[in-house]
Design brief:
alpha/beta; single chain; 8-stranded mixed sheet; Rossmann fold
Length: about 300
């Protein structure tokens, strides 16, 4: 399967999605910046059952013609949508799956249980289950991946979940549900009452967070701290690539808190503030895509010999 240039209809849909972001927060973002032409064919396997809750599944995007016979690094890609909407097969996230696979990674694009019907920790429980499933010998053999080299890629609410996946637990990042790297775009990081003061998070998005946390208010909301990646950082955490717009509706102070916490624990961080107000996948221009691929190749490496 190859990814081609968008039609005029696609551009109109992208514009409509940008309006939806402005009105509702972490809605599906524009595909306008993530549809690169590629000459590298990608094979997609849809709707695999990884054992997550409530009938969730994942798709796998893999290089059709790997440049080597050795095991390939893998990525678990996590869609945004305010923890309450979004689907792995919607165009923006399907294109991310294809883009990363065309660069030589095996991408597991996953769904997870959504709030408010399934509040925290349902989503992160599904994702830790997915990573463990990826490491099972059956998946390792079927998709030719290296179970010791799994990174997470997430945008917006998916960025929060990717960062949480990277900071939960401690020790060896090649075992269990630990991962070897995190690419995080525009993620909410500190979900506590104190976190809402970081850059003055809007009351509308505070309500989105509370619905995800399963709390009526921030008073006595124990889940808020536990759902905040910044509260779990330790020196054994994997390297992070963090990109965030300087003027978007998720305040950049959220990214700065994560960057500061990681660096204080001597975790390697690449931080890219992006001028403007674009959100999540909307910041993925050619330059940022190239930086992400270079970073992934540096920290995950190319295929093993």
């Amino acid at each position: 399967m190859r990814f081609a240039d968008r039609s005029a209809r696609g551009r109109l849909a992208a514009a409509a999605a940008l309006i939806l972001i402005t009105l509702t927060g972490c809605a599906p973002p524009s595909a306008s910046a993530i549809d690169p032409a590629t000459t590298n064919p990608v094979t997609i396997t849809d709707d695999l059952d990884y054992g997550g809750g409530h009938g969730t599944g994942l798709d796998v995007c893999a290089p059709s013609d790997p440049s080597t016979d050795g095991p390939l690094p893998a990525i678990i890609a996590i869609h945004g949508g305010g923890w309450s909407r979004g689907d792995k097969q919607e165009r923006p996230w399907r294109e991310v799956c294809g883009w990363l696979a065309s660069e030589g990674f095996v991408v597991f694009q996953t769904n997870y249980r959504l709030a408010p019907a399934h509040p925290y920790p349902a989503a992160i429980d599904d994702l830790t289950t997915a990573v463990k499933w990826m490491r099972e010998p059956e998946q390792v053999d079927r998709f030719g991946i290296d179970p010791a080299r799994i990174a997470a890629f997430g945008d917006s609410a998916g960025g929060n979940l990717a960062a949480l996946l990277g900071t939960l637990g401690s020790g060896d990042t090649s075992l269990g549900s630990r991962i070897s790297g995190v690419v995080e775009l525009s993620g909410p990081i500190d979900l506590t009452r104190e976190g809402t003061a970081l850059g003055d998070l809007s009351t509308d998005f505070q309500r989105v967070q509370l619905d995800y946390l399963g709390c009526a208010s921030y008073d006595s909301c124990a889940a808020a701290l536990d759902a905040s990646p910044s509260s779990h950082i330790d020196p054994s955490d994997p390297p992070f690539f963090i990109a965030h717009s300087t003027q978007e509706f998720i305040p950049i102070e959220q990214a700065e808190e994560l960057v500061g916490g990681l660096r204080a624990s001597s975790v390697e961080v690449t931080y890219v503030p992006v001028p403007g107000n674009a959100h999540a996948l909307g910041i993925l221009d050619d330059s940022l895509r190239a930086q992400i691929v270079e970073w992934l190749n540096e920290y995950l490496g190319t295929a093993s010999p």
